[in-house]
Design brief:
By secondary structure, this protein is of the alpha/beta class. The protein has one domain: Alpha-Beta Barrel (TIM Barrel), CATH 3.20.20.70. It has 15 helices and 15 strands. The protein has an eight-stranded parallel sheet with strand order 7-14-13-12-11-10-9-8. The two termini are 38 Å apart. The structure holds flavin mononucleotide (FMN).
Length: 404
């Protein structure tokens, strides 16, 4: 049981509150995956779960966390400890947020809104995707502290118009995703029958019929109440419907984006700019020169360049070159211990992708809330076992790189 005093969590005992019956088997973030696999049509499950080509980066993301071990201190009074952390001058209840994920209204009814509400209730950041099927304005109404992730198009005019739209909606933190110059080779999605545009094939119809909860509560409910989903946030105007043959246009032309575009965004965006998808420490320097306020090291959860290095492996070098600007990280974060390892190596914050998509698919907002609570509880418990009362006490002595 815990109670919040300001931002400080005062632990009274480490007993867990009783779990709602439907979450009795969901004891860690990974447990959402099997439930989501059963709940979703296989094509849509593949879109979320699978990685590019051989899945090498995807596996490497987990391996990179396992290469570090924690070094706990003992005999520290940990009864008053806090998972709170300050980022860009704002205090969040935990050092993790929900990574931007496109098409979440296909996995859960109005999926982005479910995530936005849960994030707001739990006081963690949620990043709205530029490939979302829910308009960014609607998400901002549910969660005024959400961040927006833009897939910048290559044209100055359309970038500036988009910035104006995002600013008018009230967003103050803009995430620029940098690792999608071209679409990835998601052959696993093709094998599973998932394509963009979504093609209404007999196999998809069969999967819909054999997953009636998803068919009725997500797909038909969306269709009846809101019509066919469109890409809402790629450009300043509404994009194509997901079934449209020319949907590619809504995914943007990003091939000739360069640092010049980032400098231009800096001139026109007074809020925070975060660049996501950086892996080479040399790009950390260039991003800072272009005026970004923070960086998310990411290989897109192994969904873009297969065999791209795991962010954990470049984290210490990136932090050393960052001159104090927040270096954050995503890709493979699943456990409280992962979060502590990243923070010990200098990360200011981390983001989690797939597990929150699975959580929303299985149980909507309640599922996402449960996922956030699980990860927060792991962080708090592991802080106690590490002899740490504030996350800022973690440092490079808290971890060791082990060779197996
Ligand atoms: C279904 C799905 C859709 C995604 N869509 C986007 C997106 O629209 N924009 C983006 O910057 N990253 C996107 N990502 C990448 C995530 O933001 C994040 O980098 C990745 O999921 C982190 O890895 P993890 O899933 O192992 O936690 C997506 C990831 C998933 C799983």
């Amino acid at each position: 049981m815990s109670q919040i005093v300001g931002v400080q969590v005062v632990e009274q005992a480490d007993a867990r509150p009783p779990l709602a019956a439907r979450f009795r088997r969901v004891l860690s973030l990974d447990d959402f995956q099997e439930a989501a696999r059963k709940h979703l049509p296989s094509q849509i499950y593949s879109y979320v779960a699978d990685a590019a080509e051989t899945g090498s980066s995807f596996r490497s993301n987990r391996a990179a966390f396992e290469e570090y071990e924690l070094v706990p201190r003992v005999m520290v009074d940990i009864m008053r400890r806090s998972t709170a952390i300050t980022l860009f001058g704002r205090t969040w209840a935990a050092p993790f947020g929900i990574a931007p994920m496109g098409l979440q209204a296909l996995t859960a009814y109005r999926g982005d809104l479910q995530m936005a509400r849960a994030a707001r209730r739990e006081n963690i950041p949620m990043v709205v995707s530029g490939s979302s099927l829910i308009a960014l304005e609607e998400v901002a109404k549910e969660n005024p502290d959400a961040w927006f992730q833009a897939y910048l198009s290559g044209s100055d005019d359309s970038i500036l118009a988009m910035l104006e739209r995002v600013r008018s909606a009230g967003y103050r933190t803009l995430v620029i995703t940098a690792d999608t110059a071209v679409g990835a080779n998601r052959e696993n999605n093709v094998r599973a029958g998932f394509t963009i545009p979504v093609r209404p094939t007999p196999a998809l119809a069969w999967q819909g019929l054999t997953h009636p909860r998803w068919l009725i509560n997500t797909f038909l409910r969306t269709l009846i109440r809101h019509g066919l989903p469109h890409f809402e946030n790629s450009y300043v105007t509404r994009g194509a419907p997901i079934l449209s043959a020319n949907v590619e246009r809504s995914l943007g032309d990003r091939g000739h984006l360069s640092w010049r575009h980032v400098r231009m965004v800096r001139e026109h965006w007074s809020g925070h700019i975060v660049m996501k998808g950086v892996l080479d420490p040399r790009d950390v320097g260039l991003a800072i020169d272009a005026g970004v306020d923070g960086i998310i090291l990411s290989n897109h959860g192994g969904r873009q360049l297969d065999t791209a290095i795991a962010p954990m492996r470049v984290l210490p070098e990136a932090v050393a070159l960052a001159g104090g600007i927040p270096i954050m990280l995503d890709s493979g974060v699943r456990r409280g211990s992962d979060v502590l390892k990243a923070l010990a190596l200098g990360a200011s914050f981390v983001f989690v992708g797939r597990p929150f998509s699975f959580a929303a698919a299985v149980a909507g907002e309640a599922g996402v809330l449960h996922g956030i609570e699980l990860l927060k509880a792991e962080i708090s418990r592991n802080m106690a076992l590490m002899g740490v009362t504030q996350l800022t006490e973690l440092d490079s002595d808290s971890v060791r790189l082990v060779c197996r």
